[in-house]
């Protein structure tokens, strides 16, 4: 899962994104990174297993509009209590469990231990928190110290006990990052959220890698046609980075929009997903 190349990839993506009208050549990208075209080709191939020419074709505005036009209809989602199954992410089963009322009885997180650890990924360092029932948070450091994320989690669940652990491999994550065939494991998520937010995240899980959707289409799918702002807020508050794919949601015109973990990372995630797509 370790990806020491991510920062250089992110620098290249950021440079490309500043020139939306005409993508730079490989020579220009190499000059920006103060390296050679040969090294750029080797960097991209090592990181995402394809050539940089193919990779760079996946992150322009015209292609985003084409993907939106080709998007399949989103399924309608109704509120559901208890365990929510029948979901997938990158071909792996996902099960969502909400928080029981007892967690609020004496304050959010009462009598709950949350273990957290730091993991490497193709998109930089990940902070992962999990309860005995499943993963409750996946976020990216963005260069901030670990204590910042511990403090945020403690503010969300002030009565919970937080315990740092050594980063044990997470089988589903490793399978996805290595692009292997999906394994027979379920990704269990324990999410602290209103049903309206959970419904939006379920819609995101219904999208396929390398595709895009928009906020209006998602609002319609969850029965909130007049609440696109609330839908947008649910997308941006997604607590499970990448694996609940909020990076696939753009504005209706195909512009990348904002992203909780940075627009450059959003570009990078989408390009990593659809690098081998022919759409």
UniProtKB/TrEMBL annotation:
Which terms are listed as keywords in the entry? DNA damage, Methyltransferase, Transcription, Transcription regulation, Transferase
Q: Matching Gene3D superfamilies, A to Z? A: Homeodomain-like, Methylated DNA-protein cysteine methyltransferase domain, Winged helix-like DNA-binding domain superfamily/Winged helix DNA-binding domain
Determine if Transcription is one of this entry's keywords: yes
* A biological process term (GO) from this entry: methylation
- Which domain of life does the protein's organism represent? Bacteria
Instruction: Output the Pfam families linked to this UniProt entry.
Output: DNA_binding_1 (PF01035)
Kindly indicate whether the keyword Disulfide bond belongs to this entry.
Answer: no
Give the HTH araC/xylS-type domain ranges. 10-107
Molecular function terms from GO: DNA-binding transcription factor activity; methylated-DNA-[protein]-cysteine S-methyltransferase activity; sequence-specific DNA binding
Name this polypeptide is given: O6-methylguanine-DNA methyltransferase
Q: What is the lineage of its organism?
A: Bacteria, Pseudomonadati, Pseudomonadota, Gammaproteobacteria, Cellvibrionales
């Amino acid at each position: 899962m370790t990806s020491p190349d991510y920062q250089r990839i992110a620098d290249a993506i950021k440079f490309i994104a500043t020139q939306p009208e005409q993508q730079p050549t490989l020579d220009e990208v190499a000059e920006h990174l103060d390296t050679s075209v040969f090294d750029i080709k080797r960097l991209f191939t090592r990181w995402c297993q394809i050539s940089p020419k193919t990779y760079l074709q996946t992150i322009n505005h015209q292609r985003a509009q084409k993907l939106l036009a080709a998007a399949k209809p989103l399924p309608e989602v109704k509120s559901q209590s208890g365990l929510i199954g029948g979901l997938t992410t990158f071909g792996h089963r996902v099960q969502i469990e909400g928080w029981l009322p007892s967690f609020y009885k004496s304050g959010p997180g009462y009598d709950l231990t949350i273990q957290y650890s730091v993991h490497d990924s193709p998109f930089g360092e990940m902070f992962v928190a999990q309860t005995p029932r499943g993963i409750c948070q996946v976020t990216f450091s963005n260069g901030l110290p670990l204590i910042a994320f511990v403090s945020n989690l403690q503010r969300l669940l002030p009565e919970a006990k937080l315990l740092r652990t050594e980063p044990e491999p997470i089988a589903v994550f490793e399978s996805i990052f290595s692009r292997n065939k999906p394994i027979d494991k379920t990704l269990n998520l324990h999410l602290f959220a209103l049903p309206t937010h959970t419904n939006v995240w379920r819609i995101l899980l219904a999208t396929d890698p390398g595709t895009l959707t928009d906020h209006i289409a998602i609002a319609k799918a969850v029965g909130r046609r007049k609440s696109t702002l609330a839908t947008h807020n649910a997308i941006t508050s997604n607590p499970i980075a990448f694996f609940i794919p909020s990076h696939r949601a753009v504005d209706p015109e195909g512009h990348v929009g904002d992203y909780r973990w940075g627009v450059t990372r959003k570009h990078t995630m989408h390009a990593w997903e659809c690098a081998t797509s022919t759409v």
